[in-house]
Prior knowledge:
CATH architecture of the largest domain: 3-Layer(aba) Sandwich
CATH superfamily of the largest domain: Bordetella uptake gene, domain 1
CATH class of the largest domain: Alpha Beta
Number of helices: 10
Strand content: 15-25%
Distance between the termini: 52 Å
Structural class: alpha/beta
Order of helices and strands: EHEHEHEEHEHEHEHEEHHEH
Strand order of the largest sheet: 2-1-3-10-4-11
Number of strands: 11
Shape: globular
Amino acid sequence: WTPARAGEAAPFPERALSLWVPWTAGGGTDLTLRLLAELAQAHLGQRIVIENRGGAGGTLAMPVLQQALPDGYTLAQMPQTVFRAPFTRKVAWDPIRDTTPILQVSGVTFGLLVPVDSPLDSVADLLAQAAAQPGRVTIATNGIGTTPHVVLDALFARHGLSFVHVPYKGVAEQMIALSGGQVMAGVNASGFAPYVDSGRLRLLATFGATRSARWPDVPTMRELGHDIVAMSPYGLAGPRGLPEAVVRRLHDAFRSALFDARYIAELARYDQEVAYLDSAAYARSMREAYAAEKRTVERLGLAPA
């Protein structure tokens, strides 16, 4: 990145950037993005400040992007829920129209968990409990309309069963509630890893296409006969209309950070791996995700009447 000559625009960036994370601090996604930002700022020569805005199923960074100047100083994580929310409730923003994709980062491992002393030993046990005690099974997720919530709705509906949904704003508070027995089960992304590894929670199943390398003894939902695969890829985007040179500068800095050995090791702590797509490929993937979520919402009957 060469210094600007007289009469040219000043080189980007000249000051600190903000990276909005639409989850509360302390979860796996928040912690891994903090390291990614730290590594990327070394390539940009400016600080990247993490701003947490949890709640509303991971969609609260979208209004920030929609209202931000297209100057490259405001970025946000794009979780899968931003592609679903416009079809399940009224929102003022559009995840394709109002953003400039920078790169895809990773995806998450979702798991179905119970407290370590729970009498429920399998997914079948959980469904049997729901059949025996209608309306009594409580299951926590990281928010209304999130992938865990949608997946649970589909699973229980398929069996003609219901559950009491208990949404939380972030992974940390959800895991504390679950390990303390305040709810019977929980579904969340791989921020649950420390709770499983320390023996506070038990993993009944994961939602990937194949078994997790970290927990190879735990079956997938698909293996158990439930046709469910979810990994929710996510990436980073800026506001609509970012100049191409700024996009390229951000992409290159975050791509370098993405393949840093420290970052790869941090992802592995949460059973994640790099799922890199460049700006153009990520733009295509975002459009595909938006179309797929519309089909899913229609199929599951989640659209508002």
